[in-house]
Amino acid sequence: MTNTDINTPRVAVVIPCFKVKRHIASVISSIGREVHSIYVVDDKCPEDTGTYVEQTVNDPRVKVIRNSVNLGVGGAVLAGYRAAIADGMEIFVKIDGDGQMDPALIMDFVAPIARGKADYTKGNRFFFLEKIQRMPPIRLFGNAALSLMTKLSSGYWDLFDPTNGYTAIHRDVAKHLPFEKISNRYFFETDMLFRLNTLRAVVTDIPMDAKYEDEESNLRISRIVGEFLVKHLRNFTKRVFYNYYLRDMSLASIELPVGLCLFLSGAAFGMAHWASSSLSGVQASAGTVMLSALPVLMGTQLILAFVGYDIQSVPKKPLHRHIANRPGAA
């Protein structure tokens, strides 16, 4: 992608740092001159990455930010966002400090936002199918499962690879995010999508390759699977309430609760009579079976109708352009 056809905005790069001392200098040196500021956020790193950067990196664009306590990747990124907002940056790109994310792609993430086509962009390592085979199988399976859950909880049905941390966001959208409510740790990227949907922000996937070298992941699937399930359910419930009952009402607002009631009542009725038949040895009548099957089928149809409506409701009008056009907007 070429970038000569867009007016380059003031771009900032945010790099959260925790145990990335071996890679950080190389990452910074690879960032092109189109970037105005680089915020290195030392998230109470045991390797004191912030001091290392100050002593070894001479790039005048670099500003080191230190968190007094370890907040996790989300807390580090949000600290960088706050600094970028205060310094008047326009688009903030977040990359990791471990060398997995190619800084040469930064303007690919910036371009859709600068052109007014998106509010937030994120990487997708699954776009080029022939290169997926390089991804470790456990990550491939985990990302597929997490992507399905994220589509449901965030409402962005057209996105994949939700845990990808290569992202960019427009300042005017970032300023409207509830920083104090966003998850600070491993759920950060997914929670960001949920918060963006509540703003009706437009999110776009950017194709990219994954790099797996000698980095060590701090994420343990067995530790977070239960937490992720609970948070996805919470976000789905809040999103549905906000979008379909608090902000607006539509036919889908009726389809979901009626569908759930029919499905659950039919299933409960059928299970109860199945258990009774098993204990008594008397086969249930055809009428009893129909009284169970009919509400289950009708409920399923209504739930699918709601999902279809939800898929069609993915935000399509960039929020930051609307904000910029408001009277008195900066």
Describe the structure.
- The protein has 330 residues and is α/β, with parallel strands linked by helices.
- It has two domains: 11-227, Spore Coat Polysaccharide Biosynthesis Protein SpsA, Chain A; 249-312.
- Helices cover 50% and strands 11% of the residues.
- A seven-stranded mixed beta sheet has the order 3-2-1-4-6-5-7, with helices on both faces.
- α1 (21-29) links the parallel β1 (11-17) and β2 (37-42).
- α7 (188-199) runs parallel beside α8 and α9 packs antiparallel against α10 (286-312).
- It is elongated.
- Mean pLDDT is 89; it is low at 1-6.
Shape verdict: elongated
Structural class estimated from helices and strands: alpha/beta
Q: How confident is the prediction overall: mean pLDDT?
A: 89
Largest sheet: 7 strands, mixed
> What is the helix fraction of residues, given as a range?
40-55%
What low-confidence regions span 5 or more consecutive residues with pLDDT below 50?
1-6
Count of DSSP-assigned helices: 11
Number of domains: 2
Fourth-tier CATH superfamily name of the largest domain:
Spore Coat Polysaccharide Biosynthesis Protein SpsA, Chain A
The H-and-E topology, N to C, reads as EHEHEHEHEHEHHEHHHH
What fold name goes in the CATH topology slot of the largest domain?
Spore Coat Polysaccharide Biosynthesis Protein SpsA, Chain A
CATH classification, class level of the largest domain: Alpha Beta
How large is the share of residues in beta strands? 5-15%
User: CATH architecture of the largest domain, please?
Assistant: Alpha-Beta Complex
Largest sheet strand order: 3-2-1-4-6-5-7
CA radius of gyration: 23 Å
